[in-house]
């Protein structure tokens, strides 16, 4: 058995989303992201309800590999979503989203991605995972979600996230 310290990076980003928690939380869903996220393309979603829920599993492509996502926490009352995805023989990523109400029509969402390398190829992924790139991705996500909540339409042409 080999035990080693993790090679890990974690970044957080705070968004202001113009909507109530009840309107925002359902959008953190592999099915509903198709409504507002231009480049989102899940392959399969395994869910009792047909949408996001605790223990929902879905897959996406990561280059030539299929990535498995598992939702480990989904609680609208707490404004909490947590999920993990695994890139085989490369890395594990935890996504944690905490949404809090600012007022009746505005919420604050704190999104944290924590990536842990599982191999030298994972180390290379972590080298490319920068705070600057993360902030660009989260800014795009914030703009896309706010646009969708305001217009009911997808905002296109943002940096790929």
Structure description:
The protein has 161 residues and is an alpha+beta fold. The chain has a single domain (8-151), classed as START domain (Alpha-D-Glucose-1,6-Bisphosphate, Chain A, domain 4, 2-Layer Sandwich), CATH 3.30.530.20. The protein is built from four helices and seven strands; from the N terminus they run βααββββββαα. It has helices at 21-24, 33-36, 120-128, 131-151; strands at residues 8-17, 44-46, 57-62, 65-75, 80-87, 91-103, 106-117. The protein has a seven-stranded antiparallel sheet. Strand 6 (91-103) and strand 7 form a beta hairpin. It is globular, with a radius of gyration of 16 Å. The protein starts with 7 loop residues before the first strand and ends in a 10-residue tail after the last helix. The model has no long low-confidence stretch (mean pLDDT 95). This is SRPBCC family protein.
What would the keywords be for this entry?
161 residues; alpha+beta; Alpha-D-Glucose-1,6-Bisphosphate, Chain A, domain 4; 4 helices
What's this entry about, in short?
The chain is an alpha+beta fold and 161 residues long.
DSSP helical segment count: 4
In CATH terms, what is the fold-level topology?
Alpha-D-Glucose-1,6-Bisphosphate, Chain A, domain 4
Mean pLDDT: 95
The CATH first-level class comes to: Alpha Beta
Protein name: SRPBCC family protein
Organism: Aureibacter tunicatorum
Furnish the topology, listing elements before pairings.
Layout: E1 8-17, H1 21-24, H2 33-36, E2 44-46, E3 57-62, E4 65-75, E5 80-87, E6 91-103, E7 106-117, H3 120-128, H4 131-151
Antiparallel strand pairs: 1-7, 2-3, 3-4, 4-5, 5-6, 6-7
């Amino acid at each position: 058995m080999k035990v080693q310290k993790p090679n890990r990076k974690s970044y957080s980003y705070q968004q202001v989303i113009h909507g109530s928690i009840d309107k925002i939380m359902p959008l953190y869903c592999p099915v509903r992201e198709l409504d507002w996220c231009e480049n989102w393309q899940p392959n399969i979603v395994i869910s009792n309800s047909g949408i996001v829920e605790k223990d929902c599993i879905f897959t996406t492509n990561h280059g030539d590999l299929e990535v498995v996502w598992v939702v480990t926490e989904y609680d609208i009352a707490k404004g909490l979503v947590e999920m993990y995805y695994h890139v085989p023989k490369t890395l594990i990523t935890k996504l944690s989203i905490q949404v809090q109400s600012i007022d009746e029509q505005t919420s604050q969402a704190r999104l944290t991605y924590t990536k842990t390398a599982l191999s030298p190829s994972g180390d290379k992924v972590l080298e490319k995972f920068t705070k600057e790139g993360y902030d660009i991705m989260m800014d795009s996500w914030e703009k896309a979600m706010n646009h969708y909540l305001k217009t009911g339409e997808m905002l296109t042409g943002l940096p790929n996230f």
